Structure formats: structure tokens, C-alpha cells
Amino acid sequence: MNHHDHSLEQDLQAMLNTQTGRRQSLRWLFGAAAVLPILGCGGSSDGDTATTATTGSTGTTGTTGTTGTTAGSCSVIPEETGGPYPADGTNSNSGGVVNVLSQSGVVRSDIRSSFGTRTTTAPGVPLTIRLHIVNANSGCAAAGQFAVYLWHCDRDGNYSLYSNGVTNENYLRGVQEADANGDVTFMTIFPACYAGRMPHVHFEVYPTLAKASSAANRIRTSQFTFPLATCNEAYASSGYSASVRNLAQMSFASDNVFSDGYSLQLATMTGNATDGYVATLTVAVAA
Q: Where are the annotated segments for Disordered (predicted)?
């Protein structure tokens, strides 16, 4: 199904015609219309801060310290900060409130290029993201009606719509509706490691595609990361030299999001830096 030429509103009109987690309180202390500083590199050391507390993580294997709640037979993925660059209407960039969810073309699988009036493609190691969404309140059954908004930084650590030089771009952002099996797929690039954060991808889960047009309807905001070995391999590729330096100064134990555990947020990886990677993760939500 090709959504490249449709906005959420257009798609939804066509369709009509035919637990709060551990960091929820930090979801936009800045205020819905707070103007955030636009940085040369999208992520600052405090830009994605979710908490200053750590609770027993090993910081190496990700097998302890995770605080995702359990409902039914599966653990709900931890609630995380959306960071300062969500572009979901909850904050502002240099031009005012920014909401990519209302932009024509946001419902798409391939998020490597900007859409609308821009066509810039973000370079980098190819990455396919496959999320399997399940509902912990329904016996962990596949949540086929849910939708996911996903975004991350580019190869240089910049976030489209916010960071200097890419405020007019909207690449590496997109919305997908889960299929009957609860699966969503995004084609993208391997994100950078910028100062202060381990490599990661942000996403929001919505109960339906119809409700994905407003951030007020999100039922979970979280992040996922990648095995260290994969990061090292990917960053040996051309264009990721800054990530090599930044990753050498970081660890999961020091990361302000994953330091208390990340076993529910560690993607399973296949592939390689030449042919591209596939990241797979099961995401349990309670709705």
C-alpha cells in the first residue's frame, strides 16, 4: 500500500468513505509550545534526558533493571521521553509549533527522503525496521489496528525540522498502520551516535491510524537501540566517523535512557553494513 501522496487526514477521509510508564512525567516539561534551541547536532547530552536516576542495570547485557510493566504474559515496553525533536505538535522549532503528523505524505514506509516540497534523501547504511505490535491487555495478541509514528537522527546526528541545516527537511520520519499481524515496516538508514546518547530510534504508538493525527492520542512513547557489535560495524562505514568517536565515549550504563535496563528495547539484528541491516523488535503496549 503506497501512502506517499497522502496525508493522515486524506487517508482517514478515504477510510471513512469506504499505563503510564516510568518517564511519563517528563514528557514535555518544556510545554506544548516551548521554543527549543536549534543545535548544530540534533542531539545534545541533555536533549533526550528522561531521568537522572538509575535502578540496578548492569549496563552491559540489558537483562536487568528494565522497568516495563507486565500485563498478561508480556512486558509492556518502557515509557520514554520523546526528546526535544518529536515534531508531533507538542513543541516548537525555530518557526513555531511543528507537527509532521499533519503534513501530506507522512504515512509511508520508506522514510529516507523528505516529502512534500523537499526531496532530499538522507545518506547512510540501509536499515529496515520491523516492529511487531502486541496488546498486553488482550493476551498479547497482535495489535493489527494500531499505528506507529517513528523518527530518528540522520548520519550526522541531526534531526530534520529542528537541527541547523535541515530545518526545511522532514526525512527520517513516518507513520505506518500495523497489518493484521501487528507488523509495521520502515525503510531507513542507520542513525548516528551523537554526544551523550547511545544510538537509538524514537517512536509513538497510537490505537488506530485515525488517532495518529494527534499526539494527544498516543498510548506509548518509547525508544529502542541496537547491539554494540552492530553499531561498531555500521560506524566503520563512510560518513560515520563522528559516531565512532562518540560511541567510544558512551555506554548503555551511562546513557540517560537505557541505563536502567534495555532488554525490552534492544532490537534483534540481521544483515551487514554493506547490504544493509534488518532490526526486529516486539513492542508490547497496554490499551
A: 48-96
Spell out the alpha helix ranges (H) of 90-205.
Answer: none
What is the tally of structural domains in the chain?
1
Highest mean pLDDT among 22-26, 40-44, 187-191: 187-191
Average pLDDT over residues 76-92: 97
Task: Look at residue 246 and tell me if it is in a domain.
Answer: yes
pTM: 0.80
pLDDT digits (tens, 9 = 90+) for 116-143: 999 999 999 999 999 999 999 999 999 9
Per DSSP, the three-state class of 114 is: coil
Map grid coordinates 516551548 to a residue.
34
Return the C-alpha cell found at 204: 509513538
The residue segments making up the domain with residue 35 are: 8-285
Neighbours of 1 (CB within 10 A): 9
Cβ atoms of residues 160 and 171 within 8 Å: yes
Q: Does 237 fall in a domain?
A: yes
Is residue 3 one of the residues assigned to a domain?
Answer: no
> Does the residue 2 lie in any domain?
no
Domain with residue 81: its CATH number is: 2.60.130.10
Q: How far apart are CA 111 and CA 50, in angstroms?
A: 26
